[in-house]
Specification:
The complex is a heterodimer of chains A (286) and B (270).
Chain A lengths: L3 E10 L6 E11 L4 E5 L6 H8 L7 E6 L2 E2 L4 H10 E4 L12 H5 L1 H5 L4 H14 L16 H13 L5 E5 L7 H18 L2 E5 L3 H7 L2 E6 L2 E6 L1 H5 L2 H6 L6 H11 L11 H13 L5
Chain B lengths: L14 H4 L2 H17 L3 H18 L3 H9 L2 H12 L6 E5 L2 E4 H27 L2 H11 L10 H31 L9 H7 L1 H24 L18 H23 L6
Antiparallel strand pairs in B: 1-2
Helix pairs in contact in B: 2-6, 2-11, 3-6, 3-11, 5-6, 7-8, 8-10
Chain lengths: 286, 270
């Protein structure tokens, strides 16, 4: 049984004349420890989809099953789902409200009804995990820099130790260094705790680097679902959906077109380096 | 949820929509005054007919007007029934200590008609005028108050900014409350105090982002050299057109008619 299984999910905003279908028969499943990226152009239903996964939005039809149980079948399961599925919204730094960083991160664990000792442990663990220095914990969250605020907000979700972590465009508005850092941390989180991660992203580079599976959404539908290699081999289809392929993949493709004997299914810079080094060491020139 | 409208403006190109907003405002105020001036069934019928005529001219479905009456129907019924029993003179119906007189019935009808007409008239104004036009019109009409050192332009600017940001804040409120719900915030259960407390995690971020927005907006306005109302010209210059003159004259005729009916036709028993 899959950890998360979504079947025939349909959702509409508004009613009657103002009906606006946002999800149309979406289905996919996710195993424990997998990293799934959702890509798609603006308005394709990505954000709506992730909000149904922790029960914030109730779908018009279809089911969202955690360990085989539909989270919408009882209010008990729905409440549990809020804690099992942690959702980091777009620009999560705007949700900070407490007087200290520590208190803000502990808001989620407190709502879970944990005891103080456990809350302390989780807050320290989550904050060191996202790289917040210890002395920041006593500061007001409003004194922090943009990047530190973002980390605080993400730590607030991590401290709930969700089985599935969903992030809606987590790197938007971050400098490249912080963005890279965040992505590396997410991979670390999966490796260490086996957390299943779902990322909504506009960055093909990050997506290619981190994902086990990729889902391409268009007009509320799951258009393509597959491994990064499967997805990014369909350059034409992606560009029809106003999406692209990672820059490095494009470079390798054009190298191949110019007659170099390189693979054209390379997705990350590291892979590309390895491929080129091995090519050059064989004595071939570019 | 993001498509909530402020006020009840219904877009349209009818004659009433296109009237100068100042004319509309003044006519509505006069109209409401004359609803109370009307003292007998004839003048009341005249002003009612006039109101219905204007409603039809707006081209907005009568259903919408009926809906606006629905909102006040309790008040209308309550005051009408109360008035029913407060008439002097010969009772025509008696039940215990309660008695209904002819004057009582007249009072009830008049009170109900007046409240309904006032609601309908203000409906005509708010349905056919966008909130921005409305504040613009108010600013123009209140301009003479400047001699009392009342900052009319500033007040109008504040009103239109407030109106502009209500949907934005509403969106923001939804976003933040969803974010806190994802962190397990419980907004629905508990007693009154607990529920108020539960809103703190939403209101604080909302306040902070409002201040940030206000700051950004002030900077943006200054970048475009905004420095208050003095010497400021307008994109939409209000001009009295022939249709405004016609509207004014027709209305004045009706108002005169109301007075004539009052004076020359018999009043009901009071």
């Amino acid at each position: 049984m899959s950890l998360l299984e979504v079947k025939n999910l349909t959702f509409e905003y508004g009613t009657g004349k103002f009906r606006n279908p946002a999800l149309n028969d979406v289905r996919f499943s996710l195993e424990k420890g997998e990293i799934l990226s959702i890509i798609g152009h603006t308005g394709s239903g990505k954000s709506t989809l992730v909000q149904t996964l922790n029960g914030l939005l109730k779908p018009k039809s279809g089911t969202v099953c955690l360990d085989g149980e539909n989270i919408f079948s009882s209010s008990e399961l729905l409440k549990k789902a809020r804690f099992r599925v942690g959702l980091v919204f777009q620009y999560p730094e705007y949700q900070l409200f407490e007087e200290s960083v520590f208190k803000d991160i502990s808001f989620g664990p407190k709502n879970m009804g944990l005891d103080n000792e456990e809350i302390d442990r989780r807050v320290f663990e989550a904050s060191s995990f996202v790289g917040l220095r210890g002395e920041l914990l006593d500061k007001s969250p409003f004194e922090l820099s943009g990047g530190e605020k973002r980390r605080t907000a993400i730590a607030g979700i991590l401290a709930m130790e969700p089985e599935i972590l969903i992030l809606d465009e987590p790197t938007a508005g971050l400098d490249p260094g912080s963005g890279r850092n965040l992505i590396e941390n997410l991979i670390k989180l999966r490796d260490k705790k086996g957390t299943t991660i779902l990322i909504v992203s506009h960055s093909m580079e990050n997506t290619a680097r981190i994902s086990d599976k990729i889902m391409v959404m268009n007009a509320g539908r799951c258009e393509i679902f597959g491994t990064p290699k499967e997805i990014f081999s369909q350059e034409k289809r992606l560009s029809e959906l106003s999406l692209g392929i990672p820059q490095i993949t494009r470079i390798m493709k054009s190298l191949k077109q110019r007659g170099c004997a390189v693979r054209d299914d390379i997705l990350t810079v590291d892979e590309a380096v390895a491929e080129l080094v091995s090519l050059l060491s064989k004595g071939e020139s570019l | 949820m993001s498509d909530i409208t402020i006020g009840q403006y219904v877009e349209g190109r009818s004659l009433i929509h296109r009237l100068d907003v100042r004319v509309k405002l003044i006519l509505m105020l006069c109209g409401i005054t004359f609803v109370f001036v009307a003292g007998n069934y004839f003048s009341m019928a005249l002003i009612t007919a006039f109101t219905i005529f204007i409603m039809l001219l707006t081209g907005i479905s009568l259903f919408k007007y009926i809906k606006s009456i629905k909102a006040v129907i309790v008040i209308v019924l309550f005051t009408a029934i109360l008035n029913l029993f407060y008439g002097s003179g010969e009772p025509i119906f008696k039940w215990g200590f309660m008695e209904i007189t002819k004057a009582g019935i007249n009072n009830a009808v008049f009170v109900a008609a007046r409240v309904i007409l006032v609601v309908l008239m203000s409906g005509v104004l708010t349905f056919t005028t966008s909130p921005t036009d409305l504040t613009d019109g108010l600013e123009r009409i209140m301009k003479p108050l400047k001699i009392f050192h009342i900052k009319i332009h500033e007040i109008a600017m504040m009103m239109s900014i407030a109106l502009r940001f209500i949907p934005t804040l509403f969106d923001e409120f939804n976003k933040i409350s969803n974010a806190q719900k994802s962190r397990g915030a419980d907004l629905e259960s508990g007693n009154f105090i607990a529920r108020i407390k539960a809103f703190v995690p939403i209101l604080i971020p909302l306040f902070i982002s409002s201040f940030r927005r206000a700051n950004d907006l002030a900077t943006a306005m200054e970048c475009r050299c905004y420095n208050g109302g003095d010497g400021r010209t307008r994109m939409k210059v209000l001009k009295i057109k022939p249709r405004d003159i016609i509207a004014l004259s027709v209305s004045v005729l009706v108002f005169v008619g109301v007075i004539l009916c009052n004076v020359f036709l018999p009043s009901p028993v009071r």
